[in-house]
Amino acid sequence: MAASLRCFLRSGKNAVSALGQREFHRSAPAAAQVTVRDALNQAMDEELERDERVFLMGEEVAQYDGAYKVSRGLWKKYGDKRIIDTPISEMGFAGIAVGAAMAGLRPICEFMTFNFSMQAIDQVINSAAKTYYMSAGLQSVPIVFRGPNGASAGVAAQHSQCFAAWYAHCPGLKVVSPWNAEDAKGLLKAAIREDNPVVFLENELMYGVPFEMSDETQSKDFIIPIGKAKIERAGTHVTLVSHSRMVGLCLDAAAVLSKEGIECEVVNLRTIRPMDVESIEASVMKTNHLVTVEGGWPQFGVGAEICARIMEGPAFNYLDSPVTRVTGVDIPMPYAKILEDNSLPQIKDIIFSVKKTLNV
Amino acid sequence: MKTMLTIISNALCRMTGRNAGAQTVSEGARVVVSRSFADFTPQATFNIKKCDLHRLEDGPPLAAELTRDQGLHYYRTMQTVRRMELKADQLYKQKIIRGFCHLYDGQEACAAGIEAAINPTDHLITAYRAHGYTYTRGVAIKEILAELTGRKGGVAKGKGGSMHMYAPHFYGGNGIVGAQVPLGAGIALACQYQGNNQLCVTLYGDGAANQGQLFESFNMAALWKLPCIFICENNKYGMGTSVERASASTDYYKRGDFIPGIRVDGMDVLCVREATKFAADHCRAGKGPIIMELQTYRYHGHSMSDPGVSYRTRDEIQEVRTKSDPISLLKERMLSNNMASVEEFKEIDVDIRKQVEEAAQFATSDPEPPLDDLCNHIFYNNPPLEVRGTNPWSKLKSVS
Question: Which locations, inside or outside the cell, does it occupy (chain A) (predicted)?
Fold first, then answer.
């Protein structure tokens, strides 16, 4: 019962209604339950307070408290100067944010979803990512582009794309993809303090999911270094590598497989670029089997990159079978629930793929 | 006798503020070979063309004061840019410069006039026809030419090239048409945020004037009253497309709609200066953004790969050269008002030629960047990282 409740919570289905609204809190009691939304909120609040050059801009971030309420309370606390509502002008305001970063500020530029970042992708890549290189170090761009990425629920094709592979393709960017509340807080703080452009990929279905946050994570200087993966669950038979919401599904699949005597090691990438290949390799050299799990499309994706990197490194010789990729179905996202559910990896798909990889 | 006439003419100039009196004296004065500094008119006032106004009651003044020193400075600036661009043309034809090279000759009055009206602490961003501004914003000729030739002594160490040169308070050099305009509005936002009374001059061309992101920028700049001077350098052609063939409205100074605009004679450095001063005052008074359209002309084609005569006539180019050349205009004004001598201008020309030649020498002899610089400057303030080379065994080093 407890296990299935945990599954239910981690997968984020109807999590918000199940748990009710959480109050925005600044000083939490020790080892509290914090939703991903509140963790992101805390991260931004702390960094806005710490450095007056930091500001947030995007659609509905101020008076609406954020389209997904991630910036709730911030406008009330910091006002118009630091929390800026923009018109619906992604290319314009992304460029403005980049210009502000060039001139000495530290903007957080929110895309209501990363689907809309396509309107502005030239500013992210050509104006932000490449400038430090083109100027041979004369001009840096300390900016964070953040927002929900990937599939939501019932929002159909134009609002469900995963951009991890798109942005992670480009030198000059750091691309981060948190899973739980601790990831969200520590990585967002790190991203804001980072002196280079960071694409911060959140997940809408995870916003309402609560996680236990230790004392340490409540500290105002709690940072998770960009570029380091985390072993969420130790195992011996197979390595599961994932990022964002799919990490939760991997843990759920691992729980089920454990009952059948298959112990999965679950690696939470946390950062897509630069990818912590060493952690994956160390795990593969222990388990000899690798399955990657992602919500994005298979072709030229995160899993594809992991396969290539494993082949080029020492871990290849330790593989007892080819790497398996579990991915979203190679189609635009459909609307009807039954179709949508079958467009993304489910726990049973991960279990099936692990067993095929282990040939059991 | 000559001295007395000069004294009278100087007095007349000061009293009337007009150059009429000086005219009659200078004819005779020019015959003398050597002139002492004290013989020249130290300051004169010139009538400048009235600017067309959009949503403005008053515009820039109709007369501009010019001191001898200022005049010589503007002349030197414009002539340096001119000679530097012509040198770049030469080096490109010799295949020492490669890739893109968009030359600015003909438009010098814009860069010189704008710089004369703003402070070094103000900010400026432009598009890819950027060599002139790179110079006026403080980068040495040799660092500009060496960047064009791709050497390690270039301002961007050879990593950027023609379109990606930077300096303090100068943000390039931008390759994507129109992308620099939101960037400029963002720089203005930073000025406002930091409360430093600085402004940002954001330049774009008649071609870029049709980019959607400009209108997004205009909207936000006006909404938030950003201290941004948007300047359209209308040189009548966006690559090979004339303004009439590209824009439903060619009144670029009105395209900001709710943003006030001024249309300026971009071939007259004084007109540009006065208009920019007016615009700067507007911004610094907290009135929000303003648009300037500078009517100017480029002698070269769009870039070095465009001869520039398939979409316009040689006659047109020649007519502009003879009737509206910005450098000639200033020179003639100063000469006919006895503010400098022909010899003086010649000396300046010779000096500039020498400087440009030396810079070109440097640009052709400086070594190319070392291969171990290949992967550097990916990230700022980061520990060294490894970058994948062309094959899995090629692990290259990158430092900040």
Answer: Mitochondrion
